[in-house]
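Project outcomes to date are best conveyed with an example. Our students and postdoctoral researchers have been running inverse folding experiments weekly, and each run begins with a structure described purely in tokens. The record below, which covers 449 residues, was selected by the lab manager from last quarter's runs and is presented without edits.
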């Protein structure tokens, strides 16, 4: 609470600076977004024109492509083929197909695997290395309508609209920074750039984009766009950019973030359990007997030193350690390893009787699936953990004579810049988006076109 009170004057002064900053022009423009998140390496694709008027360009040939038109592209014997409006398939001898928008509309992309999404703007299809490369060409403000709802949530408009506005400004700034650096294209992947899902996720967040149209975050002195970084949940402490990527950034510095405490459900507090043998096998060791953490001032783990039962050691960078257990492609839950803000605790073996949970660590956290393990005698207190593999893999048929390790953590993501859950909490407390931006980014102002 003292931290919150301490920062309130700063928020008021910083927000005043943001409001009084001299506006500069940030025009909407067309951007090219490569669709790699769900449509990368596509072999067969169908594009349906849902609304508007388009034209289909195939090298030197152009034809009208109005609403109701369909294009199917695929390959046969490593040769690209296409079919227009359910006509006969034909071999495509060129390398680029382009569906250009004449009037505003929308098109839907489908794959045989059941993946589909609707997009504004046009679509370019390139045949490369035995697959189709899809690029959505869309107005930058329309692009944001497919970013903000999936980076945050349309549901946050109820009581958290100022957070959506802050996200819109940050996402717009990120886009400007990426494209102004000479890159002509970004991707729709959150692992590479920022998440983008087209029209399929549009909703209440569009109002936040319209309300902040053209606004970006710039350096207070140079008025150049900053790296407006953000992640889901800071765990209660924003990280310094140099501790994650090695580059000093005066706009993204470490500081306490009490607004991210107590919110976020599973990402606010999580616990991951793994057996000593499985932990060691991930890093070329035998069953681990000791874990030592080297931390940054924020509390995030810089590196992990592991020692196994044979005296062998390995030191792993914090991010690499997280990636070894991160639940890629799985729903986020509190029994997962979600970030580098964590503590480690060993539960050692109990003589000849295996490993017991006398403290009730599993039961209190909902690991009911681990509580059915047989006990060697009735006097053993608590369920045995000797059959546990990990929180994600469950148990094995045979027990192991070594311990298990419990990793308890906070937050989700790299923690640099704006915490999305923290921004949402601030909005719920009545802060405006300018104040949210001033809190999470250092030495900035907002430019408005």
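After processing, the design step wrote out the following sequence:
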């Amino acid at each position: 609470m003292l931290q919150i009170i301490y920062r309130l004057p700063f928020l008021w002064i910083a927000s005043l600076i943001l409001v009084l900053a001299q506006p500069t022009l940030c025009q909407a423009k067309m951007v090219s977004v490569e669709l790699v998140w769900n449509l990368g390496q596509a072999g067969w694709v169908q594009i349906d024109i849902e609304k508007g008027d388009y034209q289909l360009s195939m090298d030197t040939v152009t034809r009208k492509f109005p609403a109701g038109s369909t294009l199917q592209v695929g390959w046969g014997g490593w040769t690209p083929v296409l079919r227009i409006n359910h006509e006969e398939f034909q071999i495509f001898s060129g390398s680029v197909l382009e569906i250009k928008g004449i009037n505003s509309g929308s098109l839907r992309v489908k794959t045989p695997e059941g993946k589909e999404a609707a997009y504004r703007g046009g679509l370019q299809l390139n045949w490369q290395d035995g697959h189709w490369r899809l690029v959505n060409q869309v107005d930058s403000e329309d692009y944001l309508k497919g970013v903000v709802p999936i980076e945050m949530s349309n549901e946050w408009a109820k009581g958290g609209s100022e957070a959506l506005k802050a996200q819109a400004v940050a996402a717009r700034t990120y886009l400007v920074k990426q494209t102004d650096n000479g890159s002509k294209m970004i991707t729709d992947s959150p692992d590479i750039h920022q998440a983008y899902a087209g029209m399929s996720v549009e909703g209440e967040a569009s109002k936040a984009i319209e309300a902040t149209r053209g606004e970006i975050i710039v350096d207070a002195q140079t008025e150049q766009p900053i790296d407006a970084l953000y992640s889901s949940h800071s765990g209660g402490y924003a990280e310094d950019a140099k501790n994650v990527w090695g580059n000093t950034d005066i706009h993204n510095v470490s500081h306490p973030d009490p607004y991210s405490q107590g919110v976020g459900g599973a990402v606010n507090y999580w616990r991951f359990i793994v057996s000593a043998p499985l932990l060691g096998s991930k890093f070329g060791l035998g069953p681990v007997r000791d874990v030592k953490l080297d931390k940054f001032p924020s509390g995030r783990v810089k590196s992990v030193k592991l020692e196994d039962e044979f005296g062998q050691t390995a030191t792993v960078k914090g991010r690499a350690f997280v990636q070894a257990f991160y639940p890629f492609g799985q729903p986020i839950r509190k029994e997962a390893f979600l970030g580098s803000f964590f503590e480690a605790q060993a539960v050692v073996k109990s003589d000849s009787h295996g490993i017991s949970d006398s403290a009730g660590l599993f039961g209190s956290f909902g690991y009911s699936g681990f509580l059915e393990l047989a006990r060697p005698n009735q006097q053993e207190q608590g369920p045995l953990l000797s059959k546990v593999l990990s929180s994600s893999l469950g148990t094995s048929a045979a027990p192991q004579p070594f311990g298990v390790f419990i990793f308890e953590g906070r937050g989700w993501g790299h923690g640099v810049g704006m915490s999305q859950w923290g921004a949402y909490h601030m909005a719920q407390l009545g802060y405006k988006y300018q104040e949210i931006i001033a809190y999470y980014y250092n030495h900035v102002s907002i430019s408005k076109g």
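The chain has three domains: 30-142, 146-261+414-444, 270-409. The two ends are 37 Å apart (CA to CA). The training component of this project remains on track.
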